[in-house]
Write a sequence for this structure.
């Protein structure tokens, strides 16, 4: 609990220094580090403990459920959007209520999903090759979140492959589609690293990403909309 309160306090202090200024500096660096440390503490470190214990007694379901939550979180940080299941036409433009679209769009865009949910062929991106992103959303993400199970042909497995360097985390074996959860863990860490690197770029693209990041950090720490901060406008 003390750690949680310290994180909230740190962000409240930082956000006042960052208010309506998006040039990269040491305060933005500290904000990004706060985000990174929180992800490690709450998600990546616990998953890594399970991976390292290697019990292989069903912990894969816990791991992939958490990974699915992380995927949507990372997707929404990239876009700066905030989930609101009661969203209406009058809701702010930065709210969303279609998790499926947010989730699948990210599977089709982020580099870590290349050769899993999209490939490049003759200079063009081919989505849902070799595996279908929408089916992963419905049969894995929704299956785990709503029914504590994977559905249809999807299964969760460990692997003897080099989990820290292997890029492909889905493979087909007969009628089964296997999610190699330990490989996905390290690829998601790569995705966070790439996102944090993009947040540090000192150009207009970096400034835009930092603005979206500020709004998401406010939301993450339950800070209400405040239009004196232009990331809420």
């Amino acid at each position: 609990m003390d750690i949680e309160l310290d994180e909230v306090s740190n962000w409240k202090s930082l956000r006042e220094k960052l208010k309506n200024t998006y040039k990269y500096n040491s305060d933005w660096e500290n904000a990004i580090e706060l985000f990174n440390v929180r992800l490690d503490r709450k998600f990546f470190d616990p998953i890594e403990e399970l991976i390292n214990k290697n019990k292989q007694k069903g912990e894969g379901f816990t791991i992939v459920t958490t990974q699915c939550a992380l995927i949507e979180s990372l997707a929404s940080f990239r876009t700066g959007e905030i989930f609101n299941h009661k969203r209406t036409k009058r809701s702010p433009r930065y709210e969303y209520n279609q998790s499926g679209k947010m989730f699948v769009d990210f599977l089709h865009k982020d580099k870590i999903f290349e050769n899993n949910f999209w490939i490049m062929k003759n200079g063009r991106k081919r989505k849902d090759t070799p595996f279908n992103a929408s089916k992963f959303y419905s049969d894995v993400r929704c299956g785990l979140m709503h029914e504590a199970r994977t559905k249809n042909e999807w299964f969760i497995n460990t692997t003897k492959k080099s989990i820290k360097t292997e890029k492909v985390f889905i493979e087909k074996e007969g009628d089964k589609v296997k999610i190699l959860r330990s490989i996905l863990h390290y690829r998601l860490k790569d995705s966070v690293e790439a996102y944090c690197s993009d947040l540090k770029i000192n150009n207009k693209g970096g400034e835009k990403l930092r603005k979206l990041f500020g709004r998401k950090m406010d939301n993450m720490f339950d800070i209400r909309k405040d239009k004196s901060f232009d990331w809420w406008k």
Remarks:
- The radius of gyration is 19 Å.
- Residues 2-232 form one domain.
- The chain has a mean pLDDT of 97.
- DSSP finds seven helices and seven strands in the chain.
